[in-house]
Design a protein that fits this description.
Blueprint (H helix, E strand, L loop, with lengths): L1 H34 L7 E7 L4 E7 L7 E5 L7 E4 L3 E6 L2 E12 L3 E13 L3 E13 L5 E13 L2 E3 L5 H11 L4 H8 L8 H15 L1
Antiparallel strand pairs: 1-2, 1-5, 2-3, 3-4, 5-6, 6-7, 7-8, 8-9, 9-10
Length: 213
């Protein structure tokens, strides 16, 4: 009886050790996969410091990097990291990014971002931004894959509306935000216009606003 108990406890300990080893190996590969990001390709661009000084050079920005990018004055120079806290935004190619603070996004779960870069999609009485993020997801077999997320942010009168968890929250929050244009607001509330139409919604509102103010 005692021998069976000892054998049983020994078998349990072996199983626990194997599971622990599997989790450790899985974490190792997930960590290395995240560390070894895509090849760094620098593009012509510029950024603005907090005092609006323009700094021109080469920029590398990856969506998996929160609140920072790499910068070097010329191709031959060594890069340095620029944090979001040091700049008001940057431009690479035809994309403009600005810094926004304390906003919510829906990834695999809802989370609040303290500070990060967002792409400017539309700038007007209502501004539209897009936040990008990328995370490594680990499969049960220890392999990983990269999951990309995109979240829209609307801003009006200094108020950010973000983190739509579903069509219902989008319909309610954006309809209230654009209530001044009742016709457009009603279409959003009645779900004639949805989250997929957000760029058209913002363009329509800004066009209406420019005519009526």
């Amino acid at each position: 009886m005692q021998g069976n108990c000892i054998r049983y406890l020994f078998d349990i300990s072996v199983i626990v050790m194997r599971i622990s080893f599997f989790l450790l190996v899985s974490f190792f590969f997930a960590y290395n996969s995240q560390a070894q990001d895509t090849e760094e390709v620098y593009m012509d661009g510029y950024y603005y410091t907090k005092d609006s000084t323009k700094v021109t050079g080469k920029i590398y920005y990856a969506y998996s990097w929160y609140s920072r990018f790499k910068f070097k004055p010329t191709e031959e120079d060594q890069p340095n990291t620029v944090e979001a806290s040091e700049t008001i935004g940057f431009v690479i190619g035809d994309k403009q990014f600005v810094v926004k603070e304390n906003f919510g996004v829906s990834l695999r779960y809802f989370m609040r971002i303290r500070q990060d870069f967002v792409e400017v999609i539309e700038d007007g009485n209502v501004s539209l931004y897009k936040h990008y993020s990328s995370h490594n997801i680990m499969n049960l077999d220890g392999s990983t894959y990269k999951q990309h997320y995109e979240n829209y942010l609307l801003e009006k009168d200094g108020k950010l509306v973000t983190g739509y968890k579903n069509e219902n929250t989008f319909a309610k929050e954006v309809a209230n935000l654009l209530i001044e244009n009742k016709e457009l607001s009603d279409k959003i509330r009645n779900k004639e216009l949805r989250l997929k139409d957000v760029e058209s919604i913002v363009l329509a509102y800004n066009s209406w606003y420019s005519v009526n103010h």
